[in-house]
Design a protein that fits this description.
Length: 332
Amino acid sequence: MILQLGSKNSPDVVPLSTNMPRDLIGRGKLPEEKTARQGGEMLITRVLNVTGKDRITAIYNDTLRPKGPAKDLKSEGRLIANGTLLVTDREYDKEVRQLHVGEKMFLMVTDADLDTSDERDKARVQIVTERGDKETIDLEETLAHSGVFTGSVGLKPTEKPVPGNIKPDEPFIESYFGDTVSLKYVDNAASTETGMLELTRELPVVIGTDGLVSSFSKTFNDEKAGRWKPKFHIAESFFELFKSHKTLGRNEELKNDLEAGRRVLREVMEDYPSPKYVPRIAYLRGQFAQELQKFEEAVESYQLIVRQYSDHPLAPDAQYKLAQWLRRGQQV
């Protein structure tokens, strides 16, 4: 008899699928009106729907016995399956072996006997980090009777985590670069001597990621633009790096980012003083000065755009920032 996760409300006659066992000795008896054949091969089969809380009872009526009257012979059992615990990619397809701060990790528990109702049941996983965070999250069954439980949790960058502060609506683990994340799922109904199985996974949080260098070619109509744009984008990248380090609270690194970005911008201004590029350079220079609390330099940069390039798309925002900084200067 083929077993299938389900309840009394689930269909007991289903189409044969490739993952079902074949060449069984005997099979569930089908109603005549549902029997169908094609090429001598049955296309449907009867299944026994079970859940993790069910007890299965088989009864045989032994009518011919050497001594005594007929007797019902019984045997009982239940569904027990050893669970599995995986950390996967976003598609729940491939197992991953390392984690990244700021991203999500995707968890999957497969445990057929944990399916106990017509609702989407839950599997509980405990997560502990080397830095001291300790949380418990619930994974939800993908379908009413799938026996597969999935869920995701983010890795929030925190050097000093606080255990037990997880939010159900937006779960995250407080971790940091170089940390180690340990996961544990306890299968309380397993085919082991004790009847329990403890599944664990341990993954490192990477300090960085491998870079990739690729060659490419690009034709610029303006030869100077071909040399100016890469340098300007480098300066922009330093500013984006600064914002990331600011979010992570890395004060020493963010100051280095700002100084490096300003240095590249000065080189761009000296090498390519064309009016065509001045507004964008001046605006980014003002942003760097603004973050470094350099009042005069920030005002000078925004004033340059407002006075000389008032029709540029950046002029309105430059004027707004200029007003902010002039007001701040008066208060100081």
